[in-house]
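TL;DR need structure tokens for one chain.
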Amino acid sequence: MIITRIAEKDLEQTDPKALSMAKEMLKAIDEFSGAGENTFVDGSVFIRAQDEAGFSLTSKWGYEFEPYFDGVPEKDTDDHAKFNLLDTVGMSQATVDTNSNSRINPAFGKSLSLRYVLNQVGNIHQPMRNIVRYSNQFPNGDNFGKDHKISIGGFKTLFDYFEGAAGQYKELSYPLTDLKTLDSYVDKLIADYPKSEFGSAVTNIEKRTWSQESYDIAVKHAYTLTSNDEEVKDAINRQLVLAGYRLSGNVAYMMSKQKMNKFQELFKS
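>> reply
TL;DR here they are.
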């Protein structure tokens, strides 16, 4: 929710037309998805809710940029991600871009696929979704940190610690009743990590690079974690904000393709 809200606020300033188009696209399955009044933010949470309910293929998604061999010899490894995040976000974007994209209904296909993009861009920026560590303790890999047990800040695994942003935003809950609590967190993050601080990283569209950045954070911070460290929280927060700005650019680009599709249809007619 934090990433999507940052993207929404950025689009309000940089490309309100794209934001309006995205919200209109999401509305196609609002009733089916159980979205509330906050269409854009709710759009990303729908996929997470599917996942937690056990109905979503996203439970198998993860992108192993490269195995992390920690104190053990390198070896060939099994494919831990049957659905590669970088491939699936590309396929979802392609579905949004095209006019004929669903056997059910084009509007349904676009609306669902845009929800996947909103979710997946955030996932690529979650460090533990981008690494599998092989060590003497985990000779067959640690399953993206899900098998690595910890007892820090109420979290029991490394994956959950990073997925839960080190417990910094516990007051957030879904479904949202309003944006007050979310915006209190988001406004502080935007103030603490202004867009100008990230430079050209904001406009970097190479999703493999995004994954590498997440992998590097996991190597540097995750496997040495012994407490609720402020440096780790800072790394997590920077990823949240950067992901929001990148998602904003991604949505603006996708909606620009929609404008071009409409122009092409008009030209053909």
